[in-house]
Design brief:
Number of strands: 14
CATH topology of the largest domain: Rossmann fold
Radius of gyration: 22 Å
Structural class: alpha/beta
Helix content: 25-40%
Shape: elongated
Strand content: 15-25%
Number of helices: 13
Number of domains: 2
């Protein structure tokens, strides 16, 4: 008897890094570890077979899908339908926002991108016009075929509410699936203790530079702190002028003369972990996130965090013990809270408690696939 087919589509990921690719890797790893391949024929659609190092999983590559949006839409809305009619899959799981026009017993799409909720400014057009266009029009991509899915998958509860309203989809069809990445940290600080290598308080913000990542609020806060004659601190930022995009160059050139800012440039994952171990406080001011992975990563170090006062940060910081929120558009507010950390005043920091999340809700790939494959 032929096995039922599961299709995992992630054709547009390319050579990207970050949360979306982590989700792909974790998904494929779970399929192999759980021996799901023994029950189902699993086919993955990627830009290259190198992205699927598992011989148990069939991989079909379409490198041309990365050439342009028009080619990608051709695959999603025309070509994949032909494949689906041949394969007749039981489940078609798309891991990248767009709902393909396919025929399958069950369909689901993982919705990573929350840029549709980003409130762009006119200045954004000059620094990253693609992001501005993206935030304006991507909602129409989301809406195409969305209601044909059995399930939509999001990473946070607030995102479920937002997409339910935007797409007019029943909340019960939207699965909240917390990221499942295993965390491994070799060196942790003692709970509630801040450990510095010297008398300077070290702040750290790890992020790929994008306009919504809001590096400027930190830089302006540093200038405010300096205006009070306070210099016994350092802020480490993961950008510089060698990255090659307008936003990075703008931030670097505007604030390179500020002595208490250290522009690290893009750094490796190991270097990020090293910064986590050495710094005294994480700052995360991003205005738009699907999850905010550095926030949940940093929780394990049990050190202070200053986070944007936005829904994603309140949810991704659940379980932290030393957290405060600031107005992401107000550098004075951030400067005030940074100065308290510098002065070893932690009275503003509080634990973030669990919240009640309605089903469908899962924290594991096993539970997620149980929902998706439920007969």
């Amino acid at each position: 008897m032929d096995k039922k087919i599961i299709v995992i589509s992630a054709v547009n990921f390319g050579n990207k890094t970050g949360g979306a690719v982590s989700i792909l890797n974790q998904c494929l790893q779970y399929i192999v570890d759980s021996r799901l391949c023994e029950q189902y024929r699993v086919i993955t659609i990627l830009h290259t077979k190198k992205a699927c190092p598992f011989p148990e999983i069939e991989c079909i590559e379409y490198p041309k899908a990365l050439s342009s949006w028009f080619i990608r839409m051709y695959y999603e809305y025309i070509y994949f339908k032909r494949l689906s009619k041949i394969w007749k899959p039981y489940l078609w799981l798309s891991l990248h926002d767009m709902t393909p026009n396919v025929v399958a017993r069950k369909r689901a799409v993982y919705m990573h991108n929350t840029s549709v909720f980003y409130k762009w400014r006119w200045r954004d057009w000059s620094l990253d016009y693609k992001m501005s266009i993206f935030s304006m029009f991507y909602k129409y991509i989301y809406r195409t075929n969305a209601k044909k899915n059995n399930y939509l998958i999001v990473q946070q509860n607030w995102t479920r509410d937002a997409f339910s309203k935007m797409l007019n989809v029943d909340r019960k069809k939207i699965i909240v699936a917390y990221p499942f990445e295993e965390k491994s940290i070799s060196t942790l600080t003692k709970e509630g203790k801040v450990q510095s290598n010297d008398n300077n308080t070290q702040f750290f913000y790890p992020s790929v530079p994008r306009i919504f990542k809001n590096f400027e609020v930190i830089c302006e806060a540093v200038k405010i702190i300096n205006s009070y004659g306070i210099t016994n601190f350092m802020v480490n930022l993961t950008l510089n002028d060698t990255i090659g995009d307008k936003y990075s160059s703008y931030i670097y050139n505007k604030y390179k003369s500020v002595s208490n800012i250290n522009f690290l440039g893009l750094i490796t994952k190991d270097a990020v972990s090293n910064q986590y171990s050495q710094c005294d406080c994480l700052i995360f001011p991003s205005k738009c996130e699907t999850w905010g992975l550095p926030v949940s990563e940093f929780i394990q170090y049990k050190k202070p965090m200053l986070l944007a006062d936005l829904p994603y940060a309140h949810e991704s910081s659940i379980g932290s013990q030393l957290t405060a929120f600031f107005d992401q558009s107000n550098p004075k507010d951030l400067a005030h809270k940074m100065m308290k950390i510098i002065n070893k005043d932690y009275s503003l920091l509080h634990p973030i408690n669990e919240i009640q999340i309605d089903s469908p809700f899962t924290k594991s790939w096993e539970n997620l696939f149980n929902i998706l494959l439920n007969e």
